[in-house]
Design brief:
Strand order of the largest sheet of chain A: 1-4
Radius of gyration of chain B: 30 Å
Structural class of chain B: alpha/beta
Largest sheet of chain B: 6 strands, mixed
Order of helices and strands of chain A: HHHHEEEHHHHEHHH
Largest sheet of chain A: 2 strands, antiparallel
Number of domains of chain A: 1
Strand order of the largest sheet of chain B: 8-9-10-5-11-12
Distance between the termini of chain B: 52 Å
Shape of chain A: globular
Shape of chain B: elongated
Structural class of chain A: mainly alpha
Strand content of chain B: 5-15%
Oligomer: heterodimer
Number of helices of chain A: 11
Radius of gyration of chain A: 19 Å
Distance between the termini of chain A: 54 Å
Number of strands of chain A: 4
Helix content of chain A: over 70%
Largest interface: A-B, 49 and 50 residues
């Protein structure tokens, strides 16, 4: 039972990070139909900012917002430089463009910083743990869960109360009509990228705080998982992205904890197999986007 | 049976053979180093057309095909690996496999068949997914297969290098495999299945409405492309002699996709162009990567120059030419734009319906909105029935239910005694019901001939398809545009092509959703003559939705009027013109002295 509680906390922490990443992908996808492969590189940029801040002796409370800001700025710059020229292109065109951006950034990190993994200085508090009954929970896990909840609440309020957030939802429903209603395309899209950068930045801080190191390919694996979470939840649906992120986190952590030893090597294939199985029964994801698939004939 | 002019297919095959032969001769003249580069290039090209066969024709970008390359490589290598080595390095291999020692060709054949069977199951599973979801599912496939290869140590040596594979792939073998793959890909594109799949890529809803079963064609392409990938996998395995699971993962996926997309996903010309461009750039940049001297100045080695170069080329290609360097057409389609037409348009006998088409108490609710509410409609064989009503009254929704695009929330669609409710659009199309769409849904990048032909091929078992297609084009007067891309035609011509496409399905019931929209008076009058002859000469029943009341009044035997989702009147044009409910719905219930508005109805 204790093991179960322990693993559930781990699953919440990991699933929360996936949820934030998937949400960042979904915000951009719902508005412009782009699956952003370079989302992981936003995480990496954030991670390196944390590393350099640590080296320069900047206090952690300041370096965290700086790292998040770096991801936001990078996201907006990415849109302006690389994605605006292909806006309105097919899904494949935009996806490949983002993949090229990711590849260029990875090589730049390798050449300009280091091909090897770099240590990040973290406050000692993060590596401590709390004891609640028989369950030992790391502070970094609790921080991850709290940060995820805060971000989700913030995003919910932003999307429902703020003018820019409402404009984004309108643009996601029907971009052409939203523009005719006077919503500026560039503002909405830049806003969407800023939000996705913000989410990637927070996710990066959480990711780094569990591992205390950064490497040029740091963002690749978690964002790959986030893609799958976004599809699992329902591509383009924000609630779906969150649900998919958490579900994927649970699947991974529980498989790692409870799968028999001899099958552990097949953990990833089995996990993905479960995802595919779910998709077979719900091809549009757990919480499908209302807009996608409702083509007017 | 191929769906494009024979001269184009011959030209393409000739060019593929000539180019490959020239490249092989040139490389052997240059020496072993160039031969190696060309061998790798040919294997890459084999894989690129393999991915292109599926992704280009279906429009679904696949990240997963390199997994099939991996499956093919491991399967073939397990068969060719010397028995002694197998016993030593893979002691847990089953006896029969450990003792098997085949040469390259039979091993490759078995690996190709094995991979195709695996792909059949995977393709059937992920075939339900659409668009970006399908793309990400293929990404999952790549990760799953990679994970299985690493985990299945007893057979694959896990993450370690799989070594000792006999190096039997030479330049000629690779060239033969590549020519084979290129020909299969090129001929599939213009096969019946390939044409149907491309129609589905261009417009899935319209493809279904003309009888195309998209998921089945996707599966055909998926299996065929996986087989080509296995061929490429076996070639590269027997070229390298040793490889690890990493060889069949993201790096090569990206490299191959870059080739495919820079060149143009939808054509074999594009695959070749992309592979040549990326290979040349990589070769040049790789030389620069290790550092070089420029005018006495030492440039330090920069790691990853090739990757940055490929990345920049992709960006440049996407910014400048979204469809890739080669665009949407094969070179021979550009240079030899002809349409293969039978010499004389034959008159295809039609079988007029003897039963009626009825919708019984049909209701369609979208969430809280009831678009159509308990409407019953009956279409008699050979009659022209007009369907009118104000905007938003449910006309198109009714048409969508009758043609299977929507399944009614309640009620039934019957043809004679057969219940058509809930059938897929392609099944409806095969039961003699064809339609056009309010916002034109052609296959814009296919020629007019192909647009119409695919409909004829996909209904009534494809019998006499070319003759039916030609007859339909002739009847609508669009034969002159046969070789033109449908997307380049004028609005009126596009409407006519769409009707011709529906007619090629040889229907007994034809639904036309605003066929005269955007046409001027003369065009509308000409259309009216054509439509009347469909009914009088071919005995086709027509259900006609339009806002042009003059057209409706002059053509229709009977008119049905919808308002706010309900049927408010049915009858002859004369009866409808006098019906108070119709007048109220169209003009509102104003003062009765307002006779001028009433006059506009006629």
């Amino acid at each position: 039972m204790d093991l179960f509680v322990q693993q559930t906390v781990n699953a919440l922490a990991l699933g929360g990070t996936y949820a934030l990443l998937a949400l960042g992908l979904a915000v951009v996808f719902s508005i412009m139909g782009l699956i952003n492969f370079a989302h992981g590189e936003l995480m990496t940029i954030s991670g390196y900012t944390l590393m350099y801040c640590g080296i320069a002796g900047v206090p952690f409370v300041i370096s965290v917002p700086l790292a998040i800001l770096a991801a936001m700025v990078a996201a907006v710059a990415m849109e302006r430089i690389a994605f605006r020229p292909v806006r309105g292109g097919s899904g494949a065109t935009m996806l490949i463009t983002s993949f090229a951006v990711a590849m260029i950034l990875q090589v730049l990190f390798q050449n300009l910083i280091s091909a090897r993994s770099q240590a990040v200085m973290l406050p000692p508090l993060l590596s401590e743990s709390l004891r609640i009954g028989n369950v030992i929970i790391g502070v970094n896990k609790i921080a991850a869960i709290v940060a995820t909840v805060l971000m989700l609440v913030f995003l919910d309020r932003f999307m429902n109360r703020q003018k820019t957030g409402i404009a984004m939802r309108a643009a996601a429903e029907d971009f052409a009509i939203a523009r005719l209603m006077g919503i500026r395309a560039n503002t909405v899209i830049a806003g969407a990228f800023a939000i996705s950068g913000l989410l990637a930045g927070v996710a990066a801080v959480l990711w780094v705080s569990q591992r205390a190191s950064v490497d040029p390919l740091m963002g690749f694996t978690p964002v790959l998982k986030a893609f799958i979470a976004a599809i699992l939840g329902g591509l383009g649906s924000l609630r779906g992205a969150v649900a998919g992120g958490f579900l994927l986190g649970f699947i991974e952590v529980y498989l790692a904890a409870f799968l028999p030893q001899e099958l552990q090597e097949f953990r990833d294939p089995i996990g993905l197999g479960i995802v595919v199985l779910i998709l077979l029964f719900r091809p549009n994801g757990m919480i499908p986007s209302r807009v996608l698939g409702s083509v007017k004939v | 049976m191929f769906t494009s002019p024979r001269i184009q297919l011959l030209a393409s095959a000739g060019a593929i053979l000539a180019l490959t032969l020239a490249a092989v001769l040139l490389a052997s003249w240059f020496g072993p180093a160039t031969e190696r580069v060309l061998t790798v290039f040919l294997i890459s090209l084999t894989a690129v057309v393999g991915i292109g066969l599926y992704s280009g024709n279906s429009g679904i970008l696949s990240f997963g095909h390199v997994a099939f390359m991996g499956i093919g490589a491991y399967a073939a290598s397990l068969l060719t690996l010397p028995s002694a080595l197998k016993v030593a390095t893979l002691p847990k291999l089953p006896e029969w496999l450990a003792m098997t020692e085949l040469s390259l060709i039979p091993a490759t054949l078995i690996a190709v068949v094995f991979t195709a069977v695996v792909a059949l199951f995977i393709g059937a599973a992920i075939g339900k997914l659409e668009g970006s979801a399908a793309t990400i599912a293929t990404l999952g496939l790549l990760i799953i297969v990679h994970g299985v290869i690493i985990g299945w140590r007893d057979v694959t040596r896990g993450a370690q290098s799989f070594f000792g594979v006999p190096r039997e792939t030479d330049l000629v073998t690779a060239a033969v495999a590549c020519v084979l793959a290129l020909l299969v890909a090129r001929y599939y594109r213009d096969s019946v299945s390939g044409l149907r799949l491309r129609a589905g890529r261009e417009n899935a809803i319209a493809a279904g409405a003309v009888g195309v079963r998209i998921q089945r064609e996707r599966l055909v392409a998926f299996v065929l492309s996986a087989a080509i990938m296995a061929l490429a996998g076996s070639m590269i395995a027997h070229f390298l002699g040793a490889f690890s699971p990493k060889k069949f993962y993201f790096n090569d996926t990206f490299l191959l996709l870059a080739m495919l997309i820079v060149g143009g996903m939808t054509t074999v010309t594009g695959a070749i162009t992309g592979a040549v461009v990326i290979t040349l750039v990589t070769e040049v940049l790789r030389r620069l990567e290790s550092g070089f001297t420029l005018g006495g100045f030492d440039v330090p080695p920069i790691f990853g120059t090739a990757q940055i170069g490929i990345g920049l080329i992709i960006l440049l290609a996407m910014f400048r030419k979204v469809d890739g360097l080669a665009g949407m057409k094969e070179w021979e389609e550009r240079l030899l734009p002809v349409a293969d037409l039978p010499d004389k348009a034959p008159v295809v006998p039609q079988a007029p319906a003897t039963d009626t088409l009825t919708g019984e108490a049909m209701t369609m609710a979208f969430g809280g909105l009831t678009a159509v509410d308990g409407v019953s409609i009956r279409i008699e064989p050979g009659e022209i029935m007009g369907l009118i009503g104000p905007n938003g009254s449910g006309k198109t929704t009714l048409l969508n239910m009758l043609s299977g695009v929507l399944t009614p929330t309640a009620g039934r669609v019957m043809r004679g005694d057969e219940d058509l409710t809930g059938l897929a659009t392609y099944q409806i199309a095969d039961r003699g019901i064809a339609r056009t769409f309010q916002n034109i849904r052609l296959f814009p990048n296919l020629t007019v001939m192909q647009n119409v032909l695919v409909a004829a091929l996909s209904t009534h078992g494809g019998r006499d398809a070319p003759a039916r297609a030609h007859a339909a084009m002739e009847r609508l007067g669009v034969t002159g545009h046969a070789a033109a891309d449908a997307g380049t035609l004028s609005y009126g011509d596009q409407r006519r092509v769409e009707i011709a496409r529906a007619l090629a399905c040889q229907p007994q019931f034809l639904f036309l959703d605003e066929p005269a929209a955007g046409m001027n008076r003369e065009e509308t009058d000409a259309l009216m003559v054509i439509l009347r002859r469909l009914s009088s000469e071919l005995g086709i029943a027509v259900l006609l939705v339009d806002h042009d009341l003059e057209l409706i009044n002059q053509l229709s035997d009977r008119i049905a009027v919808l308002n706010e989702g309900r049927m408010i009147a049915q009858g002859t044009p004369l009866e409808i013109r006098k019906d108070p409910a119709v007048i109220a719905a169209y003009l509102g219930t104003g003062r009765k002295t307002d006779t001028k508005q009433e006059g506009e109805m006629t």
